[in-house]
Amino acid sequence: MKTRSLLWAVLLTAFPAGSAAASAPAAEPVTTVTVENISGADRPAGPVTFGMIFAKSDVEGMPAVEALPAQVDVKRRWPDGSVKHAILTVALPALPAGQSRKLALVGAAKPGPAAPEPAAMLTKPPDLAVQMKVHNGPAEVASLAAAAGDKQPKVWLNGKLASEVILKTAPTDPETGKPDPDLEVRFHVRHYPAAKSTRVVCVVENCKWSSPGSVPYDVSIRAGGKELFAQKDVGRWPKDDKPRGHTKWTRWVKRFWFGRPLDDVHVRYDVAYLTRTGLLPRYDPQLKLEEKALARMADRWRRAETAPLQRGSIMAYFPTTGGREDIGPLPTWTARYLISQDRRAMDVMLGNGDFSGSCPVHIRDAKTDWVLSLDDHPGYSLNARGTKFQMKPRDTADTPYVLEARSGFSVDAAHQPSLAYVPYLITGDYYYLEEMEFWAAFNMVAIHYAYRKEAAGLLTPNQVRGVGWSLRNLADAAALAPDGSKGQAYFEAKLANNLKYLKDWVSGPEASPLGTYKLGASHAYTRGWSPKMRGVYFSMPPWQHNFLTWAAAHVADLGYADADAFRDYMMKFTIGLFTHPDEITPYAGSAYFLFVGERRPDGSVWWYDTWKDVHQRTYFAPGEQDRPLPTGIGPSEYTKAARGVLIEAVRAGRPDAQKALDWISQQVPQEKMRFDSDPTWAFRMPQR
């Protein structure tokens, strides 16, 4: 016990670079946040922790809170040294029931090298244990006390107001002392000394690269002799006719408070400022969301599947077609949260961020205890026909209880949501950071090793939309991984490889005067035609093209100038569809697909280089499918995506972008877009 207490003291006294106490006199605020007391009772003085993003150059040194003590843990800076992302812990005065307090965030003077300050020491961790009864196997326990012996802990927050460490341990059979070969439990322990409050995040994983399959178990999480949470048949979905178990490469999370709970406030941000940072889509902060839509969303969440390893609001079968709330620049529920700052929308967003862990994309390399790196394994791929070697699962002779059950999720790149990015930005929770990194790493590992150029990690061997969503998730991980971390170096390098490849391509001989993304043209939209005809035409869905174009614009907004050339090239296609009425009907801009090239009898490909060719071949060339000429557009998702891209094109100063945007606005005015119920693409119009 003495050793354990000493270890905790050592862990929590190191004062890491980038973490500091900050307060400031009255000054012009950079932005504000409003903290609301939602407890239903008077709130005594006590801390509140939240994440904050800042525009480039707004905070050169350290952010501070006007007139209040605050601890600032800076996680990422812009290339010019200004703060990009930080976690703030503010000593909030007492707040009456139902009341709120606006906090002004200012840029403090640039701090010099300060001597380390003693952080708050948690000398006795909570008596918390995760107890598992493996079906047809042992009873196992993973305790926080055992995790305190972790020899490689990670300090995440550290200062006078709050400290947090990340620990791990394996569930162990108390009778034999044998650790579970597949499962791990990670504890994120945050302590607020003044409030005498501790938050413990329990993350239960089956994420080892060598995991042979699914582990069936019942779980009980206990502390001080009390059961805090219990679940039979973990991983079993409502319609399953037999146990599924904890499937490999997945994880689940639960959070617990000891002492005074501090989750009794809701932080509201200045949406206009958040969207000016370049880190988020430029949603219209003036948009008023329909209360009915928020209420329906909250009701669906109450009825959703929310036990460990369930799906929440996420579509389990990713290739499902049709309109969905998880697909878009950000999921619809995240857009609703950002625009409305409604607590119900935040709960749905964070809940689905938790269920990101249910998707089988979480592969840890035992040698690094981190994501599977292409630098370490350039020839490996999850594509069975596209890998130089297979990872041999561990032998299960001693664990016959392991099941071959598959996850209830079927994931792909083409329908991949952004589940953890905004949750990480606003909370700073380490769980969400890891989720971002797992997805970004998985998308590269899933591609044939030769097609992705081995360690280069190219994402282009994908459907057009798959490149877009994968590029977004890679760029988000690269832009927000903490300074000096493995994630920053790794994802920045892979993003740079992709941007160079795309930049070289659009400036090379394969580029089209129309801005056609030839790399993604396919025969997918002539399925059902005879073998002779199916391979003739290369098709391109404008909406998928727009998904990728928005992603390129997003990467450029994140500060990666190497994305500009590819963004501008892609925008040319969207703009051109709406601004050449003498050659192609502008209604084609929201069509399901267009023909952009065809294979000649000699095997060569004729890529159309005029809009007239695209129009004539799409609607009048010989074929085996009725392709009626469109005569109008409505407020479809295709139209909304095109509008969103054109708004970005106007901002980027692209020729004729305003003309194209004006045409869409005349056809479908904003009030007919119904953004008040579905704000997925509700970007604010640029000022003239």
Explain this structure to me?
Among the domains are: 115 residues, no CATH class; 136 residues, no CATH class; 182 residues, no CATH class. Helix 12 runs antiparallel to helix 13 and helix 13 crosses helix 15. The radius of gyration is 26 Å and the shape is globular. It has 16 helices and 22 strands. The N terminus is likely disordered. By secondary structure, it is of the alpha+beta class. Strands 10-11-12-13-16 form a five-stranded antiparallel β-sheet.
Search tags:
688 residues, alpha+beta, five-stranded antiparallel beta sheet, four-stranded antiparallel beta sheet, 16 helices, 27% helix, globular, disordered N terminus
